[in-house]
Design a protein that fits this description.
five-stranded antiparallel sheet; Jelly Rolls; 118 residues; 53% strand; mainly beta; 0% helix; four-stranded antiparallel sheet
């Protein structure tokens, strides 16, 4: 459970524990990323600019600047940028550096197709 500290000034709340990597990703409007599964890696995404349509475990959602969402291991996921978008991705698991693709399984049928560009 994340740590929490509260005093008269307000609250400091950890949102997640130690991470193995923090990655900045920029995506052009209409481009698709993902369409894969991570077998052991947790991925938390914070949208700093823009908007994404996501498919996560068969559910679709839209996340805009300021949103924070989790993609757990074993759950198929994909994003499509609804506008030029920048995110910070925080990962726990073998998903950084030279191991970037070692925990990824591409899907035979994409969750989101580039042909669906807005």
């Amino acid at each position: 459970m994340p740590d929490r500290y509260e005093d008269a000034r307000g609250v400091i709340q950890d949102l997640l524990g130690p991470v193995d990597a923090v990655t900045k990703i920029t995506t052009r409007k209409g481009a698709v990323r993902g369409n894969h599964i991570h077998h052991r890696t947790h991925q938390w995404t914070y949208v700093t600019k823009g908007a994404l349509m996501t498919s996560l475990g068969g559910k679709t959602a839209i996340f805009t600047a300021g949103c924070f969402f989790h993609e757990p291991p074993g759950v198929p996921h994909a994003w499509q940028a609804l506008e030029d978008t920048t995110v910070l991705v925080f990962t726990q698991g073998p998903r950084s550096g030279e191991a970037y693709e070692t925990d990824t399984q591409r899907l035979d049928v994409p969750l989101i197709s580039p042909d669906e560009a807005p």
